[in-house]
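Demo today. Your pick:
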Amino acid sequence: MAENAYFPAHFLRRKWVRGDEIVSGKTLTLIAILAFVIFVVGTFVWFIGKWNASEDEALTGAVPAKTEERQA
């Protein structure tokens, strides 16, 4: 890939550095997956914790009455 002003090729070869250690792409991928899983689980726990069943409408009588079927 040729380097140009809009997309420098050295950007693809850049490594993330933490102190003296180089963090590999595999490690960054695992960190991203772990962050996503933590976010999803946290959102689910928050949803269940905030759920108030007494404020929900009952679904028992929500079925509409059967109407006559149309003849084809």
Summary: Residues 40 and 62 are 31 Å apart (CA to CA). The chain has a mean pLDDT of 75. Residues 1-46 form one domain. The helical segments are 25-50.
